[in-house]
Amino acid sequence: MKIQLWREILEPYALAVEELQVKFNHIMMAYRRAGQYSPIEQVTGRVKRISSILEKAQRKGIDIDNISGKIEDIAGVRIICQFVEDIYKVVELIKKRKDMTIKSEKDYIACKKDSGYRSYHIIVRYSVETVNGPMTIPVEIQIRTLAMNFWATVEHSLQYKYKENMPERVRERLHKSAEAIIVLDQEMSSVRDEIMDAQNSFHIKAMMISDILNNIQNLYKVANKREVIKIQDEFFRIYKTEDLEQLERFSKELDIIAEGYQAQSLR
Ligand code: 0O2
After folding, report:
1. How do strand 120-130 and strand 75-81 relate by DSSP bridges?
2. Average pLDDT per run of 10 along the chain, which is 267 residues long?
């Protein structure tokens, strides 16, 4: 394989990463827009660097001409969740999708790696449309909690620093911190319901405020200015009380007023 062809070879992988990030971000936004808790907290993606591809090929004895067939994490998407339970929800979401098929999966949460690494890995087969026609490629999806991601990021940089020669004291510390991360994830899971409730009310409040402000802005165009100023003052008064029920009542009343003006303008 000619080195100058790398860019063309990696293009479909970059497209797959981009498309999948958009799709998973869309799922996250759809949950939030519906006022529901999203099992997806963050989505990132990357195409493996050429140097890392070559290093992995060498390490695994893969022929340079067979790289795209044998290295399955050239395209990588990482989904970060808040709680361990969310990881399995995301796995179910992925399994139900029609635009990708599962090739293999590894549950490094149920069975952590010797290094202490925990994460759920799925290799999916995903099709992209290229200028040369459709192409199906493997994509590695890593699903992990914020805490697991923190540990893996630190450990990855230490691996990079020490290569094969990580000092025993550093390795021991990493093992200890991996144990602490397990406890942290368990603790977080035990208060999951309370955290989810708090986050839900935050999102509901944010959406309600955005609706109210939209309505007020539209009223400025059609209603009596003095009336709109009165509505706005009433909104600020209720907003300061931080009473979600009052805010909800106000938002519904405002919807009725806005609908009234809309009906008038259609006559
Ligand atoms: P990078 O730089 O992230 O791309 P296998 O064929 O199953 O023996 P493979 O293909 O490495 O091995 O699969 P595996 O074990 O599922 O690991 C794939 C990726 O998971 C790695 O890619 C890392 O991103 C991550 N990973 C696996 N083990 C560890 C670990 O102990 N620590 C950290 N921090 N990450 C890990 P790369 O190519 O190794 O690296």
Report:
1. unpaired
2. 74 97 97 89 96 92 86 97 97 98 98 96 97 95 97 94 90 95 95 85 88 93 90 94 91 93 75
pLDDT of residue 53: 93
* Residue 101, phi then psi, degrees to nearest 5: -120, 145
Question: Regarding the domain with residue range 3-170, which homologous superfamily does it belong to in the CATH classification?
Answer: Beta Polymerase, domain 2 (3.30.460.10)
| Probe target for ligand 1 pocket from 47, 54, 73, with the most ligand atoms within 8 Å of CB | 73
Residue to mutate (ligand 1; options 56, 117, 118, 154; most atoms within 8 A of CB): 117
**Which residues are catalytic, by number?**
140
What count of Cα atoms within 13 Å lies in the side-chain half-sphere of residue 154? 15
The reported pTM is 0.82
Domain parsing of the chain, residue ranges: 3-170, 195-266
Q: How far is the CA of 73 from the centre of ligand 1 (A)?
A: 9
User: DSSP alpha helices (H): ranges in 34-144?
Assistant: 50-60, 67-70, 84-96
